[in-house]
Amino acid sequence: ISPSISPYDNDHQQQHQPQSQQSQPQQHQEHSPEVDNARRNELVVNFLKLEKNYRNNLSLIIDVFLHPLRQEVYNSASPFISAQHVQTIFSHIEVILGSSKMFVQ
User: Quick count: other Cβ atoms within 10 Å of Cβ 79?
Assistant: First the structure.
């Protein structure tokens, strides 16, 4: 098990190091437009992959949990969960899924 690293750990360590060992602030580096565009494209591709994964997980939640619970509520004489509870738990998940699908298209 590795110990948790706080963003303050590095600052704390640098305060107790001699000046020669402390890291210098990074200078802003100029990038060519091609490098910037490549980086931007990489970020967009990664973002879309994450959004598709999110959409797939929302679909899974709806198919595995929401639909069966709705069937339980409306088809059972004594459901173990109320329609209000199902609505509260899943709120606007179908609207969010629809928005995610439109966004990815």
Answer: 16
Say if CB 74 and CB 94 are below 8 A apart: no
pTM of the full structure: 0.63
Cα–Cα distance, 36 to 17 (Å, whole number): 35
Residue with tokens 């963003």: 7
What are the C-alpha distances in Å from 1 to residues 4, 6, 9, 69, 84?
A: 9, 15, 18, 39, 43
**Residue 43 token pair:** 């970020």
Angle at 76 between CA 70 and CA 77, to 5 degrees: 140
* Distance in angstroms (rounded) separating the CA atoms of residues 54 and 57: 5
pLDDT digits (tens, 9 = 90+) for 16-54: 555 555 555 566 667 788 889 999 999 999 999 999 999
